[in-house]
C-alpha cells in the first residue's frame, strides 16, 4: 500500500499520545474504525491511516507546556489526488485546528511524486545557464523601487549589474504598475544587462516579479519571456503551491523560477502551531518546482535559527528525491564579512544574496557588488578576508570596515 | 490618498513601538525616507506608508512576553494591484518573518473594494434559494466517505436529507476518485434530494467538494453544475484566496460556494504569530466571495474562543462593506442541546452545522436531523428544549439524553 507520511509535533501535558495518534490516523482517513463490522473493515483497510511512530519527549521535571511527542502517520495515496492542496488538506486540514500541533515533516511516496516534475532547472540548470560551476553565486535585490520610473529602474539595475553579480531580483512588493510594467522593465533591464556583461564578462539572470490574478499569471509570464525575461520571481505563499506547480511544469515557461518567502512568517515561527520552515520553504517549494528558494538567513536582523536554515537546505538538495535540487538563497542581513561563514554553512551550492549589503556600501552600489565578488574570491582561495582586503581590493576593505569582518 | 490599512499586534519587552511602526510604514513601501533628498520626497510622498495608530499595552508589573502594541498602518493603494495576493504581500509579506508580529485586522479602501464583487448569493441569496427566511438553517456533513461507493453515498445522503436538513456538505477530504467522481455524486445525490424533498417539503442544497489542479477547478465546477450541483464546497486556504475570488466572481459559476477552514490552524492559534481568525476566516473569506464560511465553533472539542467566533461573525455580516454578507457556519461539536446557545450567540443568520451530532444520534442519522429541526423549532418559539422534548418529539428527547440539555 503506497502512502505519504506526515510527522507532527504534538504538545500536551498529559495526553496519551499513542491514542491521540491513532485518533488522527483514523479520523483523517476512514473516520471510524472500531465501530465498523468486520466485512466493512476488510474493504476499508486500504484507506486506513497508520501510526508509524510515536516518540514521547517527557524530560524529568518537565514544566507545563514542555511535554511533547513526535508522531508520524502514513496516509494511503488512494485517499487523495496527486496535488499539494489535496495532500495538505488530508494531512493538516482539520487537525491544524485541533490543539497544539505543528506539521514538521512530510514524506512523499513514489506514486505521489510521479505527478511532480520538480524544478525545471535546479542548481545544475542555473549553473549551466550562467556558466558558473566552481563557486557560489551572487544575487542583488532592487531596493526602494515603488514609484521609480523606467529610467531610474534601469539606472539601479546597471549599477548592480556592473558590480559583477550573477542574479538580480525584483523587489517582491513591486506589482504591475504604469511606470514599470513587467514587459517594459524586462526589456530595459535585459538591455542594461547586456551592456554590463560586455564590461564584466559575466552573464546575468534578472528575476522579474510575476504578479496579478491567478488565471493571468501564465500569460504574464509569457509576456515577460517574450520580452526577453530569463528568470521569474514568485510570491508562492500568497497564491498557493499548486499555482507554482502548474507554472513550473508548464513547458512554455522556459526560465528558472525563484520562490520568495513572503508570508512564510504567518506559518513557521510558533513553537506550537503551524508548519515548520523546512516543510514550507524546503520540501514543498522544491516539490512545487522552485529553482531557487529564498528564506531568512540566520545572520541578519530578520533571522531564522541556524538549524532551521540547515533543515531547509537539506530538503532543497537531498538526493533522496527523484527531482532536481533547488538552490538555497539565505537572505537578509548579508554583508561581505559573512561570506566565509555562509560557505561553511551552505557549501558551494548557495546564492549569496544581498540588498542593503550592496546598495549601502560606502562607495556605492557598484562597489557593493565588487566587495562581495572579492569576498567570494578570497573565500574560494582560502584567503582570510582581512588579508585579501588590501589596496587592490578597496571595495572589500571598505565593506569590512563598514559592517565588520570575517566571523 | 486612498489606502488600505493593516493592524498588527507586536510583542516586545522593550522596543520603541512608535519607531518600529514607522520603520514598517517606510520599509514596506518606499524603502527609505530620511535619506531621500527633498525633491524625491515630494514625488514619493504618495507612495509612503503612514502610521495611523500605536496603542502600547504595558500593564504595571508586566511579565516578560506580556508587553505589546496594536499598530495600524495605511498602505497607499497606488503601491499594489487590487487582488488579495498583492495586499497580503504588501502588508504581511516580509514583516511576517520579523519577530513576534500578528496580523489582526485589515481595512479596505473603496478603490480596492471596487475589484471585489463579493459573495454572489450571501445570506439573503441562500435564504431565497431555500425559501427559508424566518429561522436559522441546518446543515449536515457526510462522514467517513472515503472508500464508499456511489450506492453507499446515496444511502448516507438520503438519510441526512430525510432528517430535514437544509444543506448537506461533502467531507472536505473527499477528492476526485473513481468510486464517486463529482459529476456522478452530484447526479445521484441531487436525485435523492428530490425524492426526500417530496417527503419533507423542504428544499436542499448539496455542497460538492471542488478539488483538483488550480487551472482545472473552473471546469470541474462547471461539470458539477451541469450535473445539477446547486452548491460547492472549497478548501480555500490550500489554494489561495485569489482562486476563490476568481471562482466566485465568474458569471458561469451560478451556485453558492461554502468555504472550508482546512489548514486555518496553521495561521491563527498562536498568540504571537500568524493571522487572526477574524481576518483569515472573516474579512478575507467574505472579500473573496464565500457565500458560507465554516469555522471551528466555541462549543465542541475542536474549539476556538467565543470572542474569536464573534469577531469572525462580525466581519462576515457587517454592513460597513458594499458587498453581500457571508453566512456564518460555526462547526464541530454541535449537538441539539446547543441550539439555543448558538442562536443567542449568532442570532438567526447562522447555519447550525452538525456531523457526529446527526450521524451519532441513538436512533440513527435521520432521527439526528429531526432532533435538530425540533431544537430549532423550540428555540424559535421560546420553548425550553427539555419541555419541547416530550412524547411528540422523541428524537430531541433522545438527543438531549445522549449529549446533554440546554446550556
Outline the structure in words.
Chains A, B: It is an enzyme of class 5 (isomerase). Chains A, B: Residues 122-293, 323-403 form the Ribulose bisphosphate carboxylase large subunit C-terminal domain. Chains A, B: It comes from Paenibacillus chibensis. 2 copies of one chain form a homodimer. Chain A has 2 domains: 3-113, RuBisCO large subunit, N-terminal domain (Alpha-Beta Plaits, 2-Layer Sandwich), CATH 3.30.70; 122-403, TIM Barrel, CATH 3.20.20. Chain A has 17 helices and 13 strands. The radius of gyration of chain A is 23 Å and the shape is globular. With 407 residues, chain A is of the alpha/beta class. Chain A is 40% helix and 17% strand. The longest helix of chain A is centred in the middle third of the chain and has 19 residues, at 182-200. In chain A, strand 11, helix 12 (306-317) and strand 12 (327-331) form a beta-alpha-beta unit. The interface between A and B is large, with 72 and 72 residues.
Amino acid at each position: 500500500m503506497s502512502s505519504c507520511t506526515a510527522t507532527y509535533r504534538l504538545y500536551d501535558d498529559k495526553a496519551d499520545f499513542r491514542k491521540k495518534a491513532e485518533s488522527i490516523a483514523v479520523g483523517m482517513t476512514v473516520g471510524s474504525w472500531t465501530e465498523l463490522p468486520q466485512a466493512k473493515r476488510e474493504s476499508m483497510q486500504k484507506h486506513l491511516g497508520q501510526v508509524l511512530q510515536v516518540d514521547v519527549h517527557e524530560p524529568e521535571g518537565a514544566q507545563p507546556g514542555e511535554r511533547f511527542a513526535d508522531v508520524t502517520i502514513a496516509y494511503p495515496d488512494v485517499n487523495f489526488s496527486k496535488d499539494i492542496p489535496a495532500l495538505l488538506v488530508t494531512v493538516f486540514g482539520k487537525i491544524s485546528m485541533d490543539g497544539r500541533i505543528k506539521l514538521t515533516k512530510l514524506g512523499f511516496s513514489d506514486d505521489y511524486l510521479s505527478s511532480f516534475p520538480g524544478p525545471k532547472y535546479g542548481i545544475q540548470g542555473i549553473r549551466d545557464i550562467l556558466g558558473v560551476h566552481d563557486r557560489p553565486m551572487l544575487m542583488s535585490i532592487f531596493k526602494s523601487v515603488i514609484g521609480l520610473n523606467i529610467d531610474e529602474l534601469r539606472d539601479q539595475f546597471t549599477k548592480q549589474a556592473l558590480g559583477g553579480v550573477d542574479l538580480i531580483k525584483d523587489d517582491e512588493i513591486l506589482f504591475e504598475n504604469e511606470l514599470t510594467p513587467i514587459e517594459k522593465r524586462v526589456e530595459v533591464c535585459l538591455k542594461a544587462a547586456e551592456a554590463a556583461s560586455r564590461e564584466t564578462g559575466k552573464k546575468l539572470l534578472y528575476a522579474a516579479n510575476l504578479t496579478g490574478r491567478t488565471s493571468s499569471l501564465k500569460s504574464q509570464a509569457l509576456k515577460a519571456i517574450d520580452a526577453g525575461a530569463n528568470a521569474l520571481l514568485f510570491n508562492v505563499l500568497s497564491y498557493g503551491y499548486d499555482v507554482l506547480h502548474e507554472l513550473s511544469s508548464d513547458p512554455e515557461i522556459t526560465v528558472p523560477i525563484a520562490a520568495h518567502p513572503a508570508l512564510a512568517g504567518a506559518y513557521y515561527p510558533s513553537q506550537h502551531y503551524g508548519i515548520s520552515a523546512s516543510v514550507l520553504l524546503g520540501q514543498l517549494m522544491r516539490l512545487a518546482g522552485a529553482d531557487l528558494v529564498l528564506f531568512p538567513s540566520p545572520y541578519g536582523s530578520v533571522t531564522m535559527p541556524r538549524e532551521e536554515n540547515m533543515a531547509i537546505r537539506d530538503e532543497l538538495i537531498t538526493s533522496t528525491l527523484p527531482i532536481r535540487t533547488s538552490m538555497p538563497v539565505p537572505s537578509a542581513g548579508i554583508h561581505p564579512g559573512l561570506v566565509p561563514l555562509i560557505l561553511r554553512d551552505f557549501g558551494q551550492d548557495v546564492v549569496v544574496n544581498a540588498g542593503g549589503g550592496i546598495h549601502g556600501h560606502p562607495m556605492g552600489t557598484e562597489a557593493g557588488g565588487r566587495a562581495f565578488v572579492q569576498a567570494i574570491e578570497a573565500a574560494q582561495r582560502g584567503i582570510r578576508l582581512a588579508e585579501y582586503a588590501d589596496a587592490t581590493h578597496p571595495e572589500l576593505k571598505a565593506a569590512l570596515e563598514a559592517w565588520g569582518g570575517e566571523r
